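Hi all, posting the design record for the shared folder.

TITLE: backbone redesign
STEP: 1 of 1
STRUCTURE INPUT:
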């Protein structure tokens, strides 16, 4: 056909977060759902076989040989998608500006399926690692003023335009921040991927980001390194290395964070 199914699953520092964090979130999310928890110091790895299935699918039906992943970058994957070398590219709605040249009519968004029961009702992986915080040690006056300002940002016309708008949306005439905010006043986005995500999640169950429960960056790096090793030599033995990094590494890093 002249193209591959998937873009390169680059495991250099500009790209590996897509797989050691975002893709790894899926087996974590489903384990939490099954066990009725929202965090743990001892991940069991219940869905790591599913993680292996989706990783195998990515790396064995891609634009490059799996042995090349350690040197493949985020820019490589973006270019492969934009130039029609692949059909699927795992990334987020924030990537819209980098892929918009293919045309809105040529863009679609689909959930990441890993073979879990009930995933036909699964929506898009959705969340944030960033939150607004108010310093409890500030004066009561400053705390209230901060809360009032935050409320103004997401309820007033001027504030919402600044938060969600694009060209000329700021009171100064400069471009708005273009954010999608989880409040009723949110504006329809010019980012087609944002709108597609909203459409899908309207009648599906979004997959929660569990990133904040991952024990450390060191844990992520260990998983990423093991995934790269496995990709170059796909055997049960090298996959055991992924399981060890995921499960034992989690327990080790969780304990270290509490030491």
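Okay, here is what came back for every position:
SEQUENCE:
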């Amino acid at each position: 056909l002249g193209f591959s199914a998937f873009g390169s699953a680059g495991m250099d520092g500009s790209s590996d977060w897509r797989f050691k964090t975002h893709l790894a979130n899926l087996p974590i999310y489903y384990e939490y759902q099954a066990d009725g928890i929202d965090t743990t110091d001892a991940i069991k790895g219940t869905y790591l076989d599913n993680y292996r299935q989706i990783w195998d699918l990515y790396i064995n039906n891609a634009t490059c040989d799996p042995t090349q992943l350690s040197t493949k970058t985020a820019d490589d994957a973006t270019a492969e998608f934009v130039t029609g070398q692949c059909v699927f590219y795992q990334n987020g709605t924030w990537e819209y500006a980098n892929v918009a040249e293919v045309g809105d009519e040529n863009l679609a968004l689909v959930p990441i399926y890993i073979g879990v029961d009930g995933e036909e009702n699964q929506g898009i992986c959705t969340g944030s690692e960033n939150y607004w915080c108010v310093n409890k040690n500030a004066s009561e006056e400053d705390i209230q003023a901060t809360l009032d300002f935050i409320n103004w940002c997401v309820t007033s016309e001027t504030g919402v335009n600044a938060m969600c708008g694009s060209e000329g949306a700021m009171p100064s005439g400069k471009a708005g921040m273009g954010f999608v905010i989880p409040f009723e006043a949110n504006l329809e986005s010019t980012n087609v991927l944002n709108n597609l995500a909203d459409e899908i999640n309207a009648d599906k169950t979004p997959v929660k980001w569990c990133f904040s429960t991952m024990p450390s960056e060191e844990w992520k790096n260990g998983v990423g390194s093991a995934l790269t090793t496995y990709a170059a030599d796909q055997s049960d033995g090298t996959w055991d290395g992924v399981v060890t990094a995921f499960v034992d590494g989690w327990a080790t890093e969780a304990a270290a964070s509490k030491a």
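COMMENT: The mean pLDDT is 95.
Let me know if anyone wants the other runs.
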